[in-house]
């Protein structure tokens, strides 16, 4: 049975020292200036090595897989590899991680929440670019590439209350039944995935102290929930408490 920790994507960037990683039987050495992506589910072994007298220092990013617009079958083609960091989206991602590492002591909790969203989007863009450009191993079928484009499209249009399986299918010139089959192959439904992505973003915004004055129904509408009652029921089903209870609890904890 899979554990929650296994559904984590990690990016490792050594600042000092090296990392020897064996992922799915494939060995890589990650040195200063490199960026390496893997998930914990297929990690066989990892050895951390200091560089001479210097202490080991790593920048480590951990992202739950469900937050990325790719599913495991596609992601496996970019995980367990070094990420190209000389220009392009990979270079932007590396620079962003370096900047976060340099500024980590001066960031506030609310800054972390907002910058985390930017980081997730950059990682998703980097992985998508690798798959589409051929810089990394590519998915083996047109269906996988199409699913990747659809997920990226949905992520960009979550704010639109008219975003439905029918509108997504029409935008990509496929039938609704074919769209459903693409998602069923990965064990989920289109509507549920759209709802889960919207719920995650509303939950993030409700936890943001900078948005305390924004009414809950406005945050819900911002992410495509047209009816406050529907949003509240979906939120409670997903997280075990109402949006108001969650906001109150995180405010007290903060």
Structural classification: alpha+beta
C-alpha Rg (nearest Å): 20 Å
Give a quick account of the main beta sheet: strands, pairing sense, barrel closure: 4 strands, antiparallel
Instruction: Specify the number of helices.
Output: 10
Overview of this protein structure:
It is a single chain. The chain is 48% helix and 16% strand. It has ten helices and seven strands. The protein has helices at 72-75, 88-103, 109-133, 142-156, 165-171, 176-184, 190-206, 216-222, 228-239, 243-253; strands spanning 8-16, 18-23, 26-30, 36-39, 43-49, 57-64, 81-82. The strands form two sheets. It has a four-stranded antiparallel beta sheet with strand order 6-1-4-7, covered by helices on one side. A three-stranded antiparallel beta sheet has the order 3-2-5, with no helix packed on it. Mean pLDDT is 82; it is low at 135-140.
Relevant terms:
alpha+beta, 4-stranded antiparallel sheet, 3-stranded antiparallel sheet, 254 residues
Summarize the structure.
With 254 residues, the chain is an alpha+beta fold.
Task: Indicate the topology.
Blueprint: E1 8-16, E2 18-23, E3 26-30, E4 36-39, E5 43-49, E6 57-64, H1 72-75, E7 81-82, H2 88-103, H3 109-133, H4 142-156, H5 165-171, H6 176-184, H7 190-206, H8 216-222, H9 228-239, H10 243-253
Antiparallel strand pairs: 1-4, 1-6, 2-3, 2-5, 4-7
């Amino acid at each position: 049975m899979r554990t929650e920790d296994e559904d984590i994507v990690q990016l490792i960037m050594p600042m000092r020292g090296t990392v020897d990683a064996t992922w799915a039987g494939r060995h890589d050495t990650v040195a200063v200036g490199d960026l390496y992506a893997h998930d914990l589910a297929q990690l066989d072994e990892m050895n951390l090595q200091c560089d001479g007298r210097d202490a080991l220092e790593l920048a480590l990013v951990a992202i739950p897989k469900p937050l990325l617009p790719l599913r495991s079958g596609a992601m496996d083609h970019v995980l367990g590899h070094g990420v190209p960091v000389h220009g392009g989206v990979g270079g932007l991602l590396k620079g962003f991680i370096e900047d976060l590492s340099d500024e980590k002591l001066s960031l506030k909790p609310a800054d972390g929440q907002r910058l985390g969203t930017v980081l997730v989007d950059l990682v998703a863009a980097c992985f998508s670019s690798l798959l589409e450009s051929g810089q990394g191993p590519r998915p083996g079928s047109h269906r996988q590439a199409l699913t990747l484009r659809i997920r990226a499209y949905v992520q960009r249009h979550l704010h639109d209350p008219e975003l439905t399986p029918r509108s997504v299918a029409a935008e990509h010139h496929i039938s609704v039944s074919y769209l459903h089959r693409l998602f069923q192959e990965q064990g989920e439904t289109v509507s549920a995935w759209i709802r889960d992505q919207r719920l995650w973003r509303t939950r993030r915004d409700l936890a943001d102290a900078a948005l305390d004055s924004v009414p809950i129904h406005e945050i819900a509408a911002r992410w495509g929930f047209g009816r406050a009652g529907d949003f509240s029921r979906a939120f409670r089903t997903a997280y075990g408490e109402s949006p108001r209870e969650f906001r109150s609890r995180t405010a007290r904890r903060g």
